[in-house]
Amino acid sequence: MSPENGAQPHEIDQAVLDGQAPYHRRALAFYDLVVFRGSAPWFWRCHPSNFEQLYRTSIGAKHLEIGVGTGYLLSRTRFPVSNPKVTLADLNPATLDFTAQRLRFVETTKVVANALEPLPVPDESHDSAALSFLLHCIPGSLRDKGVAIKHAAAAVKPGGTVFGSTVLSSGVPVTRAGRWLMGNLNAKGVFHNDQDSLGDLRAQLEQNFDDFELVTRGSVGLFRARKPK
């Protein structure tokens, strides 16, 4: 496992730093239960099997995970090779350490990185890149923070795959309970998706890829895009 590197906190917008602050080690211990067994199926109406299938059908031998969470999906997927290499990119050292420990039997590299800035990895160096449940946590509208998709694409080799998921607030069905939780999380600064629409997500994918798939499950947009060879 390589040393951490990347952007320094003083270079990053404070709202972005505030958004990742709640993900400290104690909270991460409950993250999987709260998100994948709680809010995703019950509030966003998206069963965890949808995320797991996306990973199984999209992940490459050398993978870049942008916004790592706890590594839950990475730990449950099947890589196409027996010796995958995974780069973990996140602003939060706690999530990087937690996920690296969870993936301790996989070769991992940790980088401190801001998805809104060019990533501190070589261009076209990975077979796949994922932005899972990340965009709805980043301040701003998808018209602005969609640049994270562009940065992910830059890190992927020709023919590689960029995939991910995000909770949307318009253009998708949102239950009354989902709308309540979404409002609560936006008020706390954990979510920043009150302007996030399905149309804007599609537009960001169209700007960066000619070949992509975008489907919805409940309030969640799931996407997979192929970089031209």
TrEMBL record:
GO BP term, example: methylation
UniProt entry keywords in alphabetical sequence: Methyltransferase, Transferase
Keyword Transferase included in the entry's annotation: yes
SUPFAM superfamilies, per database record: S-adenosyl-L-methionine-dependent methyltransferases (SSF53335)
Keyword Glycoprotein: no
A GO molecular function held by the record: methyltransferase activity
Domain (Methyltransferase type) ranges: 64-161
Organism superkingdom: Bacteria
Protein name as annotated: Methyltransferase
Native species: Streptomyces phaeofaciens
Phylogenetic classification of the source organism: Bacteria, Bacillati, Actinomycetota, Actinomycetes, Kitasatosporales
